[in-house]
UniProtKB/TrEMBL annotation:
Signal peptide (from-to): 1-26
The keyword Manganese belongs to this UniProt entry's keyword annotation: no
Residue intervals of the Penicillin-binding protein transpeptidase domain: 351-651
Organism whose genome encodes this protein: Glycomyces endophyticus
Domain Glycosyl transferase family: 68-247
UniProt protein name: Transglycosylase domain-containing protein
Reaction(s) the record says it catalyses: [GlcNAc-(1->4)-Mur2Ac(oyl-L-Ala-gamma-D-Glu-L-Lys-D-Ala-D-Ala)](n)-di-trans,octa-cis-undecaprenyl diphosphate + beta-D-GlcNAc-(1->4)-Mur2Ac(oyl-L-Ala-gamma-D-Glu-L-Lys-D-Ala-D-Ala)-di-trans,octa-cis-undecaprenyl diphosphate = [GlcNAc-(1->4)-Mur2Ac(oyl-L-Ala-gamma-D-Glu-L-Lys-D-Ala-D-Ala)](n+1)-di-trans,octa-cis-undecaprenyl diphosphate + di-trans,octa-cis-undecaprenyl diphosphate + H(+); Preferential cleavage: (Ac)2-L-Lys-D-Ala-|-D-Ala. Also transpeptidation of peptidyl-alanyl moieties that are N-acyl substituents of D-alanine
InterPro entries: Beta-lactam/transpept-like, Glyco_trans_51, Glycosyltr_51/Transpeptidase, Lysozyme-like_dom_sf, PBP_transglycosylase, PCN-bd_Tpept
Length: 698
């Protein structure tokens, strides 16, 4: 009798403290005063918990990856099975629809139950109070505020209770329950009911059964203690059955229906959602490199925050739906092609970039690597001075571009910049220069072999003779372009490269490209500067769009949690080149792949006829290899699609890919064109005006 009396007195004191919050809060800070409570309650009701961003391919259905710190997706209350709503109320706050945010009966009941058992059998916090506590944690701006929102003190509990009552004046019960269901933690990084239904049962919360709902409702109090994924489900079963009993007690469930479920085991269908470009359960994703390129692009967009770190946080917490530009079929084709390509050694990276002219949209990024952080089974590093694992077959390095890292020398593909600079300055396609096997230019060289001048040679004596832009470009005649850049000006060629989107990624490149030195950088014409594959592919993508330059972009649509579509994914294009200049460059580029074409003086051969034969349609482009064949490139385009392929050793750029691999990139581009455009309309390039072809200038 004395114990019962003592319990009632203590419970009464607790209730009295809650009924007279002004006296109880006399010692609190101003933030917890009545005015502050009113203000804070508004903040609580407007709390937006971190949400997962979903990233899809261009079809809007193929999931590329998720980005999240807390796996959570908001669902409305009508998207949650009624039985799940009932189970949660029964487990956490059976008088939820009767109290005003604080359940005084529940306090007494919990006090008696806990005092009798000597432990914590029942909690006195209502669903509204739990929501308030969670919202305060989410809004916390420091660790001290997090501690203040969760510390076990009378002051904190009283503040929480007053806030709960204020919240109940501003929100309906259904609104509170919806917010709580989306906020609660269920274990296994599942925040909110959508994530819980996905992680434990691989289904939408609207599809949850009675036994599944009771299992999930039982987790919220102590997710680790009642974890059903562990091998022993004894505690999880007991907790689920307790929830069923509570549902019977408040007339949500008949005893007969509860008895049927009590005898059932907990049948899970566990999911491990992908995160940050890594697939389910850490498995590699075929979209990993594209996904990482998208992430790096997002970090550079001012629309999503002031700094790269802020922007990434926004991606991981903002709950965006992102439809990317990735075409799943083209991605598979690119991956299959680069991995099937024959090369002498697997240490060489072989990749392909597919882009859409006129938009800059990146359609696919193929690479003969696996996007994975696990490099424990990689081979040794190819740089002999590095005593560590290399980046094959697994890597997360941005081999194809998009990061701050440097690129690779692109060899004769850089002749495109001198060609464009000459055309832009008024030189015609038939501009003829006698081009011997070796030529002395006016550019100064550090070597004394040619009297202190730069004196490049052709790769073959058969290239010598009278050449114009068609034959010089198609046959890749070094001595023609060395003389052309001498006449046009190296500064004009470097400026053209910048106009076409190139950045100077090494100290050496930045040094020679500086305003005071670029006019003397003659070797630039032969591709001595580093460039990233995505960057270089976009140069030729601009030509495919008749001079319309578009920034490379991996996003098609970006939709915020409110359903508003943002303009951050809109193509960013402008007319950089005169259309006639671009068309003339394309006309010369066709000599590389279509040597039998009439109406142009392509010479007796081109460097890459295999591309034209495989594509089976008009295609322009340029091949490129560097000194000692350290890299091998081909960049090609049709009016509908641009493809750039390369081969190099990204770990040690001084490794030579070898003569046998110099044709691999050409074959890759041709094969992708053949299959990607099969059944598509054959569109011819538009010819340049006769003035730019035949004005007789020499």
């Amino acid at each position: 009798m004395y114990a019962l009396l003592r319990t009632s007195v203590l419970a009464g004191l607790a209730i009295a403290a809650l009924l007279f919050p002004l006296a109880a809060m006399a010692g609190l800070s101003a933030k917890a005063g009545f005015n502050a409570i009113d203000t804070l309650s508004v903040e609580v009701t407007e709390t937006d918990p971190p949400l997962t961003s979903y990233v899809y391919a261009s079809d809007g259905e193929t999931l590329i990856s998720l980005f999240y710190d807390e796996f959570r997706r908001h669902v409305s209350l009508d998207e949650v099975a009624p039985v799940m709503q009932q189970a949660m109320v029964a487990a956490e706050d059976s008088r939820f629809y009767q109290h005003n945010g604080v359940d005084y009966r529940g306090i007494v009941r919990a006090f008696v139950a806990n005092n009798s058992s000597g432990g914590v059998e029942q909690g006195a916090s209502t669903i509204t109070m739990q929501y308030v506590r969670g919202a305060l944690q989410l809004n916390a701006e420091s660790i001290d505020e997090v501690i203040a929102a969760t510390e076990q003190t009378a002051t904190r509990k009283l503040t929480e209770a007053r806030l709960a009552m204020a919240v109940e004046e501003q929100l309906t019960k259904d609104e509170i329950l919806e917010r709580y269901l989306n906020q609660a933690y269920f274990g296994h990084n599942a925040y909110g009911i959508f994530a819980a239904a996905q992680v434990y049962f691989s289904k939408h919360p609207s599809e949850l059964s009675l036994q599944e709902a009771a299992t999930l409702a039982g987790l919220v109090q102590a997710p680790s203690a009642y974890d059903p994924i562990v091998s022993d489900q004894t505690d999880a079963l007991a907790r689920r059955n307790w929830v069923l009993d509570r549902m019977v007690d408040i007339d949500y469930l008949s005893r007969g229906d509860a008895s049927e479920v009590r005898g059932l085991p907990i049948e899970l269908h566990v999911s491990d959602p992908p995160n940050s470009c890594i697939g389910v359960e850490g498995t590699p994703s075929e979209y990993g490199f594209f996904c990482d390129y998208f992430r790096r692009w997002w970090r550079e967009q001012d629309a999503f925050g002031a700094t790269p770190a802020d922007r990434e946080r926004e991606l991981r917490q903002g709950g965006y739906t992102i439809i990317t530009t990735l075409d799943p079929e083209l991605q598979k084709l690119a991956n299959d092609t680069v991995n099937d390509a024959k090369s002498e050694e697997s240490k060489y990276a072989h990749g392909a970039v597919l882009m859409e002219p006129g938009t800059g949209r990146v359609k696919a990024l193929g690479l003969n690597r696996t996007f994975s952080y696990d490099q424990s089974h990689n081979g040794p590093h190819s740089n002999p001075s590095f005593d560590r694992k290399g980046n094959y077959p697994n890597t997360v390095n941005p081999v194809l571009g998009g990061g701050a890292e440097g690129g690779y020398q692109a060899g004769s593909t850089f002749k495109i910049f001198t060609l464009l600079a000459a055309l832009d300055a008024g030189y015609p396609l038939d501009y003829n220069i006698y081009s011997p096997n070796q030529v002395r230019t006016s550019f100064v060289s550090a070597t004394t072999a040619c009297g202190g001048n730069w004196c490049p040679k052709n790769s073959s004596a058969a290239m010598a003779g009278n050449r114009d832009m068609w034959s010089g470009f198609g046959m890749s005649v070094n001595t023609y372009f060395a003389q052309l850049i001498d006449r046009v000006g190296a500064d004009k060629a470097v400026e053209m490269a910048e106009r076409m989107g190139l950045e100077w990624r090494s100290e050496g490149d930045a040094y020679y490209a500086s305003e005071e030195r670029r006019s003397g950088w003659g070797p630039f014409v032969l591709g001595v500067s580093d460039v990233q594959p995505i960057e270089m592919t976009n140069v030729f993508n601009t030509l495919a769009a008749e001079g319309e330059y578009c920034e490379p972009i991996p996003a098609l649509r970006i939709i915020d949690p409110q359903g508003q579509e943002l303009d951050a994914a809109a193509p960013r294009c402008h007319q950089e080149l005169d259309k006639d200049v671009a068309r003339a460059a394309t006309d010369a580029g066709r000599c590389v792949t279509e040597t039998a074409r009439k109406g142009a003086q392509c010479g007796s051969w081109g460097t890459s006829p295999v591309v034209g034969k495989l594509a089976g349609r008009p295609v322009a482009g340029k091949s490129g290899t560097t000194d000692n064949n350290r890299t091998s490139w081909f960049l090609g385009y049709t009016p509908q699609l641009t493809i750039g392929a390369f081969m190099a050793d990204p770990d040690y750029i001084f490794n030579e890919v070898g003569t046998a691999n110099t044709t691999v990139s050409k074959a890759t581009v041709g094969a992708i064109f053949k299959e990607a455009l099969e059944g598509e309309e054959v569109i011819d390039f538009k010819a340049p005006s006769r003035e730019i072809q035949y004005d007789g200038k020499d």
